[in-house]
Design a protein that fits this description.
The chain is mainly α. It contains eleven helices and two strands. Strands 1-2 form a two-stranded antiparallel ribbon. Strand 1 and strand 2 form a beta hairpin. Helix 3 packs antiparallel against helix 4 and helix 3 crosses helix 9. The protein is globular. The chain starts with a helix and ends in an 18-residue tail after the last helix.
């Protein structure tokens, strides 16, 4: 059973979804960004954090850690996500995907030395990514407003609520002994640093370019809507317009 702290986080997530239903509505093709001023401040913080911390750390990590070891860390991190994927598959009645994720987790954990290697992928058994934000979408929860979250980056009210629930209910929290609870967090952080190194040029072209806020917002929403299978809507305005003149 979740403790008081986790129960509080779950309530916060539910509140976020409820607030999302009350967020200002927009017409077809319009981006729902009523908190743009605050989002831009958070975006500026994230850009600065990337410039001064994440990018330099990722370059040092990438140049000092051999590629096979970086891939092993990334594989291990991804393997730890599979139980959460499977849980959300079950909540969405996607039982075939749940079985695929459980089988991949078991196979890579046993034959891939805890997931450091990916023999399941070599056999044509890829991960079926899922999260509680998608579960909320399937359940009919509104997307709510666009948000830029410090450290986490672009999101929406529904997706942020989903992220909180995924963290709290992650089955890995109950698989690892208490003394090892920091291991998954460390693996996920190392994998994120490795991704920052791997996609350095692409990230720089988005995050450190003029109009980065509008570009990041548009890319996130379009990809998220595509992943959810939402119908595409042609924008009725210029998504790169900058009302703040920055």
């Amino acid at each position: 059973m979740p403790g008081p702290r986790r129960s509080g986080m779950l309530w916060a997530a539910l509140v976020a979804v409820t607030v999302g239903a009350c967020a200002p509505k927009t017409g077809p093709g319009l981006i729902n960004d009523p908190y743009e001023a605050q989002n831009r401040e958070n975006h500026a913080f994230n850009v600065a954090f990337d410039s001064h911390v994440l990018q330099p750390v990722s370059q040092a990590y990438g140049k000092s850690v051999p590629g096979p070891l970086r891939r092993g860390v990334s594989n291990f991190s991804q393997n730890l996500d599979l139980p959460s994927y499977a849980l959300n598959d079950i909540l969405q009645a996607r039982f075939a995907s749940a079985g695929q994720n459980v089988l991949r987790f078991a196979f890579n954990t046993v034959f891939g030395i805890g997931g450091i290697f990916d023999p399941a992928g070599a056999l044509g058994l890829p991960p079926a990514e899922n999260d509680f934000g998608r579960t909320l979408y399937v359940w009919g929860a509104p997307e709510g407003a666009y948000l830029e979250v410090p450290f986490l980056g672009p999101s929406t009210q529904r997706d942020l609520a989903g992220t909180v629930v995924d963290i709290v209910t992650d089955p890995v929290n109950y698989i690892f002994p208490k003394r090892m609870h920091n291991y998954p967090t460390a693996a996920h952080l190392a994998a994120r640093v490795g991704d920052r190194y791997k996609y350095n040029s692409l990230i720089n072209s988005i995050l450190h370019a003029p109009g980065s806020y509008q570009q990041e917002r548009l890319i996130y929403l379009e990809k998220r809507h595509h992943d959810l299978g939402m119908p595409e809507q042609a924008p009725t305005f210029d998504p790169y317009e900058d009302p703040y003149g920055k």
